[in-house]
Amino acid sequence: MSLENEIGDLWNRYQSDDVDAASATDDDRATLEAFLDALEAGEVRAAEKRDGEWQANEWVKRGILLNFGLRENRAFEYGGVDHYDVLPLRETADLGERHTRNTPNGTTIRRGAYLGADCIMMSPSFVNVGAYVGDGTLVDSCDTVGSCAQIGANVKLGANTLIGGVLEPVEDAPVVIEDGVSLGAGCRVTSGFVVGEDSVVGENTLLTPRIPVYDLVEEEVLYGELPSERRAFTRFVESSVSDHDIFSGGAYKPAVVATDLETETLEATAREEVLRE
User: Which candidate, 253, 205, 262, places its Cα nearest to that of 230?
Assistant: First the structure.
Protein backbone atom coordinates (compact mmCIF):
# COMPACT_ATOMS: atom_id res chain seq x y z
CA MET A 1 0.00 0.00 0.00
CA SER A 2 1.36 3.46 -0.90
CA LEU A 3 1.94 6.13 1.74
CA GLU A 4 -0.96 8.15 0.28
CA ASN A 5 -3.30 5.18 0.68
CA GLU A 6 -2.09 4.51 4.21
CA ILE A 7 -2.73 8.12 5.18
CA GLY A 8 -6.16 7.97 3.51
CA ASP A 9 -7.09 4.82 5.42
CA LEU A 10 -5.88 6.28 8.71
CA TRP A 11 -7.78 9.52 8.04
CA ASN A 12 -11.03 7.64 7.46
CA ARG A 13 -10.60 5.74 10.72
CA TYR A 14 -9.78 8.97 12.55
CA GLN A 15 -12.82 10.76 11.11
CA SER A 16 -15.10 7.89 12.16
CA ASP A 17 -13.65 7.89 15.70
CA ASP A 18 -12.18 4.40 15.27
CA VAL A 19 -8.72 5.64 16.32
CA ASP A 20 -7.37 8.39 18.56
CA ALA A 21 -4.07 9.25 20.25
CA ALA A 22 -4.66 6.68 22.98
CA SER A 23 -5.68 3.82 20.69
CA ALA A 24 -3.23 4.35 17.80
CA THR A 25 -1.25 1.19 17.07
CA ASP A 26 2.47 0.80 16.39
CA ASP A 27 1.64 0.48 12.69
CA ASP A 28 -0.32 3.73 12.83
CA ARG A 29 2.60 5.52 14.46
CA ALA A 30 4.99 4.03 11.91
CA THR A 31 2.82 5.48 9.13
CA LEU A 32 2.93 8.91 10.77
CA GLU A 33 6.72 8.73 11.09
CA ALA A 34 7.16 7.59 7.49
CA PHE A 35 4.95 10.47 6.36
CA LEU A 36 7.03 13.05 8.26
CA ASP A 37 10.23 11.53 6.86
CA ALA A 38 8.81 11.91 3.33
CA LEU A 39 8.00 15.58 4.00
CA GLU A 40 11.51 16.24 5.30
CA ALA A 41 13.04 14.53 2.27
CA GLY A 42 10.92 16.62 -0.12
CA GLU A 43 9.32 13.47 -1.51
CA VAL A 44 5.81 14.76 -0.79
CA ARG A 45 4.62 18.37 -0.67
CA ALA A 46 1.54 20.13 0.66
CA ALA A 47 1.00 21.86 -2.70
CA GLU A 48 2.28 21.58 -6.27
CA LYS A 49 1.89 23.55 -9.49
CA ARG A 50 -0.31 21.80 -12.03
CA ASP A 51 -1.25 23.29 -15.39
CA GLY A 52 0.07 26.64 -14.26
CA GLU A 53 -1.96 26.76 -11.03
CA TRP A 54 -0.87 25.97 -7.46
CA GLN A 55 -3.08 23.28 -5.96
CA ALA A 56 -3.13 21.71 -2.50
CA ASN A 57 -2.33 18.04 -2.04
CA GLU A 58 -5.21 17.35 0.29
CA TRP A 59 -3.94 13.98 1.45
CA VAL A 60 -0.65 15.57 2.55
CA LYS A 61 -2.45 18.18 4.63
CA ARG A 62 -4.58 15.42 6.15
CA GLY A 63 -1.38 13.60 7.07
CA ILE A 64 -0.17 16.67 8.95
CA LEU A 65 -3.50 16.96 10.78
CA LEU A 66 -3.26 13.28 11.74
CA ASN A 67 0.10 13.95 13.35
CA PHE A 68 -1.64 16.44 15.62
CA GLY A 69 -4.70 14.31 16.29
CA LEU A 70 -2.96 10.97 16.93
CA ARG A 71 -0.08 12.12 19.12
CA GLU A 72 -0.02 12.96 22.82
CA ASN A 73 1.21 16.34 23.99
CA ARG A 74 4.46 15.78 25.88
CA ALA A 75 7.65 17.42 27.07
CA PHE A 76 10.63 17.96 24.78
CA GLU A 77 13.95 19.62 25.51
CA TYR A 78 15.54 22.11 23.12
CA GLY A 79 18.57 24.23 23.92
CA GLY A 80 18.22 23.51 27.61
CA VAL A 81 14.60 24.68 27.70
CA ASP A 82 11.65 22.33 28.16
CA HIS A 83 8.64 22.82 25.91
CA TYR A 84 5.41 20.91 25.32
CA ASP A 85 4.18 19.84 21.90
CA VAL A 86 2.87 16.87 19.93
CA LEU A 87 5.80 17.06 17.49
CA PRO A 88 9.53 17.16 18.19
CA LEU A 89 11.88 19.45 16.32
CA ARG A 90 13.45 18.27 13.11
CA GLU A 91 16.78 16.44 13.21
CA THR A 92 19.34 18.55 11.37
CA ALA A 93 22.30 16.20 10.76
CA ASP A 94 21.43 15.99 7.05
CA LEU A 95 21.59 19.77 6.55
CA GLY A 96 25.37 19.98 6.74
CA GLU A 97 25.73 17.38 4.00
CA ARG A 98 23.80 19.73 1.69
CA HIS A 99 25.69 22.85 2.81
CA THR A 100 22.60 24.28 4.48
CA ARG A 101 23.25 26.42 7.54
CA ASN A 102 21.06 27.12 10.56
CA THR A 103 22.82 29.57 12.84
CA PRO A 104 22.77 29.05 16.64
CA ASN A 105 20.63 30.68 19.32
CA GLY A 106 17.18 30.47 17.86
CA THR A 107 16.79 28.74 14.49
CA THR A 108 13.87 26.36 14.98
CA ILE A 109 12.80 23.78 12.40
CA ARG A 110 9.78 21.70 13.30
CA ARG A 111 9.51 18.02 12.40
CA GLY A 112 8.10 17.56 8.90
CA ALA A 113 9.69 20.64 7.31
CA TYR A 114 11.91 20.49 4.21
CA LEU A 115 15.02 22.61 3.65
CA GLY A 116 16.92 22.31 0.38
CA ALA A 117 20.63 22.58 -0.33
CA ASP A 118 22.65 25.76 0.28
CA CYS A 119 19.91 27.36 2.41
CA ILE A 120 20.67 29.81 5.20
CA MET A 121 18.53 30.17 8.33
CA MET A 122 19.50 33.11 10.51
CA SER A 123 18.66 33.38 14.21
CA PRO A 124 15.98 33.66 15.35
CA SER A 125 13.74 32.12 12.70
CA PHE A 126 11.13 29.37 12.53
CA VAL A 127 10.01 26.91 9.84
CA ASN A 128 6.81 25.01 10.60
CA VAL A 129 5.64 21.48 9.75
CA GLY A 130 4.80 20.88 6.09
CA ALA A 131 6.74 23.90 4.86
CA TYR A 132 9.03 23.52 1.84
CA VAL A 133 12.08 25.79 1.49
CA GLY A 134 13.91 25.49 -1.84
CA ASP A 135 17.62 25.39 -2.63
CA GLY A 136 19.68 28.50 -2.00
CA THR A 137 16.99 30.35 -0.07
CA LEU A 138 17.75 32.78 2.78
CA VAL A 139 15.43 32.80 5.81
CA ASP A 140 16.58 35.91 7.67
CA SER A 141 16.39 36.90 11.33
CA CYS A 142 12.94 36.99 12.96
CA ASP A 143 11.30 35.27 9.97
CA THR A 144 8.45 32.77 10.25
CA VAL A 145 7.60 30.25 7.53
CA GLY A 146 4.14 28.90 8.31
CA SER A 147 2.77 25.38 8.01
CA CYS A 148 2.59 24.08 4.42
CA ALA A 149 4.06 27.28 2.93
CA GLN A 150 5.93 26.63 -0.31
CA ILE A 151 9.11 28.68 -0.77
CA GLY A 152 11.01 28.33 -4.05
CA ALA A 153 14.70 28.27 -4.87
CA ASN A 154 17.02 31.28 -4.47
CA VAL A 155 14.43 33.27 -2.54
CA LYS A 156 15.36 36.02 -0.09
CA LEU A 157 13.04 36.51 2.88
CA GLY A 158 14.03 39.83 4.44
CA ALA A 159 14.34 40.19 8.20
CA ASN A 160 11.10 40.09 10.22
CA THR A 161 9.09 38.61 7.36
CA LEU A 162 5.99 36.50 8.00
CA ILE A 163 4.95 33.77 5.57
CA GLY A 164 1.55 32.61 6.80
CA GLY A 165 0.49 29.01 7.13
CA VAL A 166 -2.62 27.46 5.56
CA LEU A 167 -3.29 24.02 6.99
CA GLU A 168 -7.09 24.08 6.99
CA PRO A 169 -9.26 23.73 5.04
CA VAL A 170 -7.23 20.99 3.37
CA GLU A 171 -8.41 21.91 -0.13
CA ASP A 172 -6.95 25.43 0.10
CA ALA A 173 -3.49 25.99 -1.37
CA PRO A 174 -0.99 27.55 1.05
CA VAL A 175 1.13 30.66 0.62
CA VAL A 176 3.53 30.24 -2.30
CA ILE A 177 6.72 32.23 -2.92
CA GLU A 178 8.10 31.16 -6.30
CA ASP A 179 11.74 30.94 -7.40
CA GLY A 180 13.96 34.00 -7.33
CA VAL A 181 11.65 36.23 -5.29
CA SER A 182 13.06 38.87 -2.94
CA LEU A 183 10.84 40.04 -0.07
CA GLY A 184 11.94 43.18 1.75
CA ALA A 185 12.18 43.39 5.53
CA GLY A 186 8.88 43.29 7.38
CA CYS A 187 6.76 41.84 4.58
CA ARG A 188 3.65 39.78 5.39
CA VAL A 189 2.27 37.19 2.96
CA THR A 190 -0.89 35.40 4.10
CA SER A 191 -3.99 33.39 3.20
CA GLY A 192 -2.73 31.46 0.19
CA PHE A 193 -1.28 34.44 -1.69
CA VAL A 194 1.06 33.53 -4.58
CA VAL A 195 4.12 35.65 -5.36
CA GLY A 196 5.31 35.03 -8.92
CA GLU A 197 8.92 34.13 -9.70
CA ASP A 198 11.68 36.75 -9.82
CA SER A 199 9.52 39.49 -8.29
CA VAL A 200 10.92 42.04 -5.85
CA VAL A 201 8.65 43.24 -3.04
CA GLY A 202 9.35 46.39 -1.06
CA GLU A 203 9.71 46.56 2.70
CA ASN A 204 6.66 46.24 4.97
CA THR A 205 4.35 45.21 2.13
CA LEU A 206 1.27 43.19 3.08
CA LEU A 207 0.22 40.64 0.47
CA THR A 208 -3.14 39.03 1.17
CA PRO A 209 -6.14 38.18 -1.07
CA ARG A 210 -8.18 40.96 0.54
CA ILE A 211 -5.86 43.71 -0.71
CA PRO A 212 -5.95 44.56 -4.44
CA VAL A 213 -2.82 44.40 -6.58
CA TYR A 214 -2.78 47.12 -9.22
CA ASP A 215 -0.67 45.57 -11.98
CA LEU A 216 0.46 48.50 -14.07
CA VAL A 217 2.21 46.21 -16.56
CA GLU A 218 -0.94 44.43 -17.77
CA GLU A 219 -3.22 47.23 -16.52
CA GLU A 220 -5.48 45.02 -14.40
CA VAL A 221 -6.49 44.62 -10.79
CA LEU A 222 -5.63 41.25 -9.24
CA TYR A 223 -6.46 39.55 -5.95
CA GLY A 224 -4.42 36.80 -4.32
CA GLU A 225 -1.44 36.90 -6.66
CA LEU A 226 1.51 38.99 -7.77
CA PRO A 227 2.62 38.15 -11.33
CA SER A 228 6.18 37.15 -12.17
CA GLU A 229 8.93 39.73 -12.68
CA ARG A 230 7.25 42.60 -10.89
CA ARG A 231 8.45 45.25 -8.49
CA ALA A 232 5.72 45.69 -5.87
CA PHE A 233 5.20 48.18 -3.07
CA THR A 234 2.39 49.48 -0.85
CA ARG A 235 0.39 52.58 -1.68
CA PHE A 236 -2.79 53.96 -0.17
CA VAL A 237 -5.77 54.62 -2.42
CA GLU A 238 -8.99 56.47 -1.80
CA SER A 239 -11.53 54.57 0.29
CA SER A 240 -15.27 54.32 -0.27
CA VAL A 241 -15.76 56.34 2.95
CA SER A 242 -13.43 59.13 1.84
CA ASP A 243 -16.32 61.55 1.37
CA HIS A 244 -17.66 61.08 4.90
CA ASP A 245 -15.26 63.59 6.44
CA ILE A 246 -14.18 61.19 9.21
CA PHE A 247 -10.98 63.18 9.31
CA SER A 248 -9.37 65.91 7.28
CA GLY A 249 -8.46 64.74 3.78
CA GLY A 250 -10.73 61.70 3.80
CA ALA A 251 -10.00 58.00 4.36
CA TYR A 252 -7.65 55.70 2.45
CA LYS A 253 -7.11 51.95 2.20
CA PRO A 254 -3.96 49.96 1.40
CA ALA A 255 -3.23 48.59 -2.05
CA VAL A 256 -0.21 47.05 -3.77
CA VAL A 257 1.18 48.60 -6.94
CA ALA A 258 3.15 46.33 -9.30
CA THR A 259 5.44 47.67 -12.02
CA ASP A 260 8.23 46.37 -14.25
CA LEU A 261 11.48 45.55 -12.50
CA GLU A 262 13.63 48.65 -12.61
CA THR A 263 17.24 48.58 -13.74
CA GLU A 264 18.57 49.53 -10.30
CA THR A 265 16.53 46.72 -8.74
CA LEU A 266 18.13 44.19 -11.07
CA GLU A 267 21.58 45.61 -10.33
CA ALA A 268 20.96 45.35 -6.59
CA THR A 269 19.88 41.73 -6.99
CA ALA A 270 23.04 40.96 -8.98
CA ARG A 271 25.20 42.56 -6.29
CA GLU A 272 23.55 40.40 -3.62
CA GLU A 273 24.19 37.25 -5.65
CA VAL A 274 27.89 38.16 -5.76
CA LEU A 275 27.94 38.65 -1.98
CA ARG A 276 26.25 35.28 -1.39
CA GLU A 277 28.85 33.54 -3.58
Answer: 262
Element (H, E) at 14: helix 3-15
Mean pLDDT for the chain? 92
Residues 236 and 196 in one domain: yes
At 275 the pLDDT is 45
Cβ atoms of 178 and 197 within 8 Å: the answer is: yes
Question: Residue 16: CB partners within 8 Å, gap ≥ 6?
Answer: none
Q: How far apart are the first and last CA of the chain?
A: 44
Q: Give the domain extent around 35.
A: 3-74
> Could you tell me if 55 and 90 lie in one domain?
no
Residue 128: φ, ψ to 5°: -90, 170
Domain count, the chain: 2
Collapsing DSSP states into helix, strand and coil, what is residue 11?
Answer: helix
- The answer to pTM > 0.85 is yes
What's the rounded mean pLDDT across residues 129-155? 98
Angle of helix 26-40 versus helix 3-15 axis, rounded to 10: 130
Name which of 97, 131, 93 is nearest 115 in CA terms.
131
CA distance 132 to 151: 6
Which of these, 58, 57, 63, 61, lies nearest to 31 by C-alpha position? 63
Say if CB 195 and CB 68 are below 8 A apart: no
Phi, psi of 36 (to 5 degrees): -65, -40
Domain match, 60 and 168 both: no
